[in-house]
Amino acid sequence: IWMKFEEHFWRINTTDKEFHIWADEWRGYFPVWQNFNVLRDFEDQNILMVTLSGRDAYSAEGMSDDTVIRRAMGVLRQMYTNASEPVEIHVSRWSRDPFFYGAYSDRTTGTFAYTGNVLEYPINQLFFS
């Protein structure tokens, strides 16, 4: 779930952290927030992404965008009382997308930074992303 905001309200003191973690009574409820402002290609874009997994991801996929954002904003406002409404949103539904069906990849310990670049090259008509 990606949300773009007018202003950058989540800075802690003068430090900008990439990840912000939420521990809710309901384990896994909007737990990991990523601040894209610290990523070179997204500086000053004011984008936060929250990751859901497992049953929470499947549950969110069955909800309307408005419901998902309302719940996400409920958590975000507990984290940051000055949180404003997002100006743009994107709610992915990976398990329903025929090109993904819920899959994603991540590098494991011992892999190299260029490993992902190598996987971008097609093999005949087969493409990886």
Name the shape in a single word.
Answer: globular
Q: What is the typical, i.e. mean, pLDDT?
A: 84
DSSP helix fraction:
10-25%
User: How many individual β-strands?
Assistant: 5
- Would you tell me the structural class of the helices and strands? alpha+beta
Order of helices and strands: EEEEHHEH
Q: Span from first to last CA?
A: 19 Å
For the report, how would you describe the main beta sheet? 5 strands, antiparallel
Radius of gyration: 17 Å
Write the layout of secondary structure elements.
Blueprint: E1 2-4, E2 19-21, E3 32-35, E4 47-51, H1 54-61, H2 65-79, E5 88-90, H3 115-119
Antiparallel strand pairs: 1-4, 1-5, 2-3, 3-4
Explain what the structure shows.
- This protein is α+β, with helices and mostly antiparallel strands and 129 residues long.
- The protein is built from 3 helices and 5 strands.
- It has helices spanning 54-61, 65-79, 115-119, and strands spanning 2-4, 19-21, 32-35, 47-51, 88-90.
- The protein has a 5-stranded antiparallel sheet, with helices on one face.
- The mean pLDDT is 84.
In short:
The chain is of the alpha+beta class and 129 residues long.
Key structural traits:
single chain; 129 residues; alpha+beta; five-stranded antiparallel beta sheet; 22% helix; globular
